[in-house]
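Justification of computing resources. Each target in the renewal requires a structure prediction run like the one illustrated here; the chain below, 505 residues long, is used simply to show the kind of job we budget for.
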Amino acid sequence: MDRREKVERYLDTAMWWKGLRETNNETFLPLFFDQHRYLVLKGGGGSGKSIFAGRKVLERVTSEPGHRWLVTRKVARTLRDSCFAQLRGQIAQYYPDAGAKINKGDLWIGFPNGSEILFAGLDDVEKLKSIYDITGIWIEEASELEEGDFNQLDIRLRTVFPYYLQIILSFNPISITHWLKKRFFDIPDQRAHVHESTYKDNRFLTAEAVKTLEGFKDKDEYYYMVYCLGQWGVTGKTVFDGKAVSERLTRIPKPELRGAWLYDMTEDGVHIENIRWEDDGQGPVKVYKKPVPGRPYVIGADTAGDGSDWFVGQVLDNVSGEQVAVLRHQYDEDTFSRQMYCLGKWYNDAMLAPEANFSTYPVKLLDLMGYRNLYVREIEDTFDGTIRHAYGFRTDRLTRPVIISELIRVMREHLETVNDEDTLLEMLTFVRDENQRAAAEPGAHDDCVMALAIAHYVRPQQTMEVERTAAAGTAVWTQDMWDDFNRADPQGRELLLRMWGAPRR
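Resulting structure tokens:
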């Protein structure tokens, strides 16, 4: 290649890049060179994500010979007036000399270099079967697809091709429980590039269009959040203030500690000793504030049941009501109960209120282990009308709406007391169904919400004042206190001495 050819090629490249910059939004320009298998375009309406997706498809099929690019949506009939119409317009405006042949009847676009763009909906099974050797896929309104639909498309992209294979997904984030969030956002995929945009990134929008979009701030907060700002939404009417919860999510603290409790079992196989903490970035216990000597704490616990697969314990400072720690894991009842024992002991023998709906085993095991500060409820004997006491909190058709109502009130006034991301995310999917029953949205969980509701409800049974520690050398210790002291590690013993004072000799 001589100098003249190099200069001409450079000028051609410069003109090409200048053309892209002038006709595309700045936020999307790097994505023209992105070669990840999955290019995930999440955004609100008017962000320009679909316009970019079409441009990238056309850039590739016009410059890379032999493409068989599939453009798809859930329903075939929606393609003609959306993706097909958009690409025809973009060809006329930006690629008039590309030699494109457009078949309006069959929804097909071909090019002289052998590349072609095919259109098929996922409801058009016969047409999909006839499409083979796919080199790229653009899925418009990907949130309309089930995960199984996407998997079927994914396995079809396996052709041997000299250029990279890519699936482009463009969508509005309609639901925080959607499989797209779980697949590409909750657990990062090294083969995926996630890009987020809003109408604020689109410099081509008219002032009138911007005014219309921003008008939804006052008209419909949910619509503005999802379809304008591109934030994950919910499909039902949230029980809690969705806007306030979303705003709180932007200001939550990082846990001071994360890990789990380690311990040794005694010979009886019931009691535990030598309790110690192990740091683990993925551990089930998140500590937002460490225990303060003399301060009362309560723990509400939701045990796995009713289709749930999470055990959750919520620790509250009973003076302020602040959420100071969360235990959340897919434990068995044994392990959960022992972790709760350790957590309760660390938080100054916190009053522990485990749910006793599906199984009384955790309550019985905690009692057997010698945990003496369990929540006590009154039960009326149906035979003779006498009142007896039982450990643990029972969630039923009478108590459930009561504790949820109390939690709604507390969150309305003191949402700043919630520090945990998982808890706040559950609040966004805690909705009222068609029968006005408050419950988790289908596919979501409510374990954190229910444990928090129990914790707040039982607070009055525990003192809400900081206890004064005994003066050194004046405290009288019970046998249980001596047992706890003898089992504790040096750090634990120091804490107990600060709480109880030195024992009288």
